[in-house]
What we know:
Layout: H1 11-14, H2 16-24, E1 32-36, E2 45-51, E3 54-60, E4 66-70, E5 84-86, E6 90-91, E7 98-99, E8 105-107, E9 126-132, E10 135-139, H3 147-150, H4 154-161, E11 168-178, H5 182-189, H6 195-198, H7 200-205, E12 213-217, E13 220-225, E14 247-252, E15 256-261, E16 265-275, E17 278-288, H8 294-322, H9 344-358
Antiparallel strand pairs: 1-10, 2-3, 2-5, 3-4, 4-9, 6-7, 7-8, 9-10, 11-17, 12-13, 13-14, 14-15, 15-16, 16-17
Helix pairs in contact: 5-8
Amino acid sequence: MTSPIHSLDARYYTDPAIYAKECKGLLAKTWQFGCHGSALPLPGSYTSFDIAGESLFAIRDRDHRIRVFYNVCQHRAHQLVSGSGRVPAIVCPYHAWSYHLDGRLRSAPNLDVVAGVDTASICLSEVKVEEFLGFVFVNLDPEAAPMDQWFPHARQELMEWVPNWDRLKPLEWVEIPEDCNWKVSVENYSECYHCALNHPTFASGVVKPETYDIQPQGKCLRHTTECQNLADMTYDIQSGFDHFDQYSSWFLWPMFSFQVYPGNVLNTYHWRAVDADHVVVWRGWYSVDGAENDTVRKLAKQDRETTVEEDIHLVESVQRGLCSRGYRPGPLVIDPEGGVNSEHPVMHLQRWMKEAIDA
């Protein structure tokens, strides 16, 4: 780099037309978190969610495979399900057209009086889906490359840091509404230039800021750091697993991150954009079999009362500032050596954002 790289223009975070374009492009052509696999324990178990403005639902079929469909009947477009539950077949509440758990048409009242209908060709519209360490991700682009190509090494590394991943289930979901554009929140998460000033508990109690660095790994931003004096930790980190004395994070572009705290404690961030000015951040905390765990509960509470609360004020202030006619995008602080006081992760994010929007 021979000249400064400036932050994106404010319109990328404030213009509803850009958000609408993201829903049709960026958010519809990237891997998005839908649900945790434990929400679908048995054949016929389903749960619904929205991605890029589309209503979808995940369901476990009779072969125990997880499928994701657009939540729309192929007859006259009524939505099929809401919330979560378990059904022997998917039945439209409008005219009782029903579908097998694999999406094929099962029956339709009086349809046999219509000549020439090829019932075998009628099936629900399916969405590309992958299970990633128990988490169900979807991509509305049928030609999307597998997640391992998007996020090289992330799956293998996470399996090393969380070797009991297949036994973990959600213990607690915390929904955090933020009055800001989703990209403002993601950028804030993806740099620690602000940590020492704004997150004293995180910066002094978990990570060692002078060793904190974030580097791209495909479309994953890989957070690494040494930890502070682990003798001062407020809980027993002796899990019996490798990496028990480390913190790491894997941000999967554009809206999901895995974090592993000392003691191999898994937690996640998931951003769900509402509109150009609002996002809901889901904080997930996990325990073996979803069983009550005092350590995880205390960590979640501490996180809510410190880092989470501190970040809400930061990102909402940024969004207000982006709406000011007095704002002129300043240069990003890019340190060629990386490190905690460098905004190179924001540089990568903003390039990915701009490429997706301007494409």
